[in-house]
Structures are given as structure tokens and as C-alpha cells.
Amino acid sequence: MLDEILNETREKMKSTLSVFEEDLHGIRGNRASTALVDRLRVEYYGQESDMRQLATISTPEPMQIMIRPFDKGAVKAIERAINDANLGLNPQIDAGVIRLNMPPLTRERRQELVKLLHKRTEDARIAIRNIRRNANDDIKEFEKEKEISEDDAKRGQEKTQEMTDEFIKKLDEVSKIKEKDIMEV
Questions:
Q1: Are residues 110 and 178 in the same domain?
Q2: What's the distance, CA 63 to chain centroid?
Q3: What pTM did the predictor assign?
Q4: What is the number of domains present in the chain?
Q5: Which residues, 6+ apart, have CB-to-CB distance to 2 below 8 Å?
Q6: Which of 10, 59, 71, 75 has the most neighbouring CB atoms within 10 Å?
Q7: Which of these three, 62, 85, 101, is where a domain ends?
Q8: pLDDT of 133-183, one tens digit each?
């Protein structure tokens, strides 16, 4: 009973960490990254698709993203999606290939990105703490219904807290690495 709650809690926390890491790929760092655009939603023939399903995305140079659509007819739709995403990038179209040249980050923009990073990190911490609260509520409920002993409940809550500390530490480590990437000149 208790093991089920703890395993489920660990899986939920792992999932939250994964989502957080994926989310950070969308925040621009000091160099071009395909993750900045590969999940952009593109409306093509009335269907919404991720950009990566419509094109090959690469970084031929440290400050450039190149998008090569599988179908030349998708170029305008991809350009529109990039402009609508408000990434601060100006798509340049050349023979059916879209190039995004990354302008160097200004100091102000770096600070804005770090603020955004801190907000997303705090949101992820809150999600982890909510998972902990739900697990503790479940443990208390099982104890109240006499399905687990008081000692097991206490041990379960301690393990839940250890997991919470472990995952928040991982979140902070990932966040620090991303912040260093953003601030690097």
C-alpha cells in the first residue's frame, strides 16, 4: 500500500522534472538550438502539427537555425508560425530553406530570460510540493482507515519528504546550468 504511493509519487516527480527540462529547451540560451522551434505548432492544410513533423531542423552554425521543409508548400506556413511565436527572430527564406539568424542577446534580454527561467523553476518546485502534499494526504487517509500503521505513515511521510528534497535539488541544478548558458557571453 505504502510502496504504491511512494512509487507513484516518484514517477509523478520524475515526470514533472522531465516536463521542466523540456520546457527549458524552449528558452533561448547563448547559442542556436533546434529545441527553440521544433515544437512550434504550424497550421498546414488545416491541420496543426509540430514543426519537426514538417521539416528537418538543424544548426549549421552556432548562431543559426536552418529549417528545410519536406514539402516546399509548407514554407509560408512555417514562416507564419515563427512570426506568430514572437521569438524575436526574422525568418529568411532562400530556395525553400528557412534560416533563422540568432541575434546576440542583449544584457536586458538575458535578464528577462533569467527571470522567466526563475519563474518556471518556481512553478516546477510548486508542482513537486503539490505532489508531496497529495502523497501525504493519501498516507494520512490510509492511516485513518487503519490500512497502515502510524509508524508506516510516519516513515512514508519522511520518504516523501526525502524524494521532494531530491527532486527540488535536481530542478535547481538544471536551472543553474540553464542560467549559466543564458548569461554566458
A1: yes
A2: 21
A3: 0.76
A4: 2
A5: 139, 142, 148, 152, 153, 155, 156
A6: 75
A7: 101
A8: 999 999 999 999 999 999 999 999 999 999 999 999 999 999 999 999 888
